[in-house]
Amino acid sequence: QVQLVESGGGLVQAGGSLRLSCAASGHTFRPYTMGWFRQAPGKEREFVAGSSWSGGTTYYADSLKGRLTISRDNAINTVYLQMNSLKPEDTGVYYCAAGNRPYGNRTYEYDYWGQGTQVTVSS
After folding, report:
1. What is the per-residue burial (b if ≥16 Cβ within 10 Å, else e) of 63-94?
2. pLDDT digits (tens, 9 = 90+) for 63-106
3. Backbone angles phi, psi at 96, to 5 degrees
4. 49-73 pLDDT tens trace
5. Phi, psi (degrees; rounded to nearest 5) at 37
6. In the chain, what percentage of residues exceed pLDDT 90?
7. Of 6, 13, 41, 43, which is most buried with the most CB atoms under 10 A?
8. C-alpha angle with apex 61: 112 to 123, nearest 5 degrees?
9. pLDDT reported for residue 61
10. Strands 10-13, 117-122: parallel, antiparallel or unpaired by DSSP?
11. C-alpha–C-alpha distance, residues 34 and 49, integer Å
12. 64 to 1, 21, 73, 93, 112: CA distances (angstroms)
C-alpha cells in the first residue's frame, strides 16, 4: 500500500504560478510511475502529467505542454507539479496518483490516489 498526500493548492490570479507537492508513504521502495490528474466541477478526471520512476521520462497532456513541469525527488518520496501561466480553466481538484505500470495517462492505469488539493484560478 502507498499513501499519497497532496499539498500546495490555493487561490491564484490568472497568469500566476503554483507548485503542488505529493508526499508518498508506505511501500515507497517500489518503482512507481507517478502522475497528476485534475477534475473540474461537473467534468471527468483528466490526465495532466506523468513521470517514470527515475524521473527520466516525463509526459504531459497536449493542451498543457509548456506550462507544467513534473518532477520527483525519490530520496524524500515526493513528486511535484510546477504550474505556470495559470488560467481560470485550470481550476479544479488536483490529484496525485501512483501506478505499477511503466506508463500511464488514464485513471485506470494508476493504483493509488491521494485526496486531492484544490486549485482555483481567478480571472
Report:
1. ebeeebebebebeebbbbbebeebeeebbbbb
2. 999 999 999 998 999 999 999 999 999 999 999 999 999 889 99
3. -100, 145
4. 999 988 889 999 999 999 999 999 9
5. -130, 165
6. 85
7. 6
8. 100
9. 96
10. parallel
11. 9
12. 30, 18, 22, 16, 23
The Cα 7–Cα 46 span in angstroms is 19
Residue 64's SS3 state is: helix
CA distance 30 to 32: 6
Sign for the CA dihedral angle at 34, 49, 47, 45 comes to: positive
Say what the pLDDT of residue 54 is: 85
Q: Give the three-class secondary structure for 77.
A: coil
| Alpha carbon distances (Å) from 10 to 5, 86, 116, 118 | 15, 12, 12, 6
Phi, psi of 18 (to 5 degrees): -145, 150
State the residue for C-alpha cell 505500470: 101
Q: Residue 8: how many CB atoms within 10 A of its CB?
A: 16
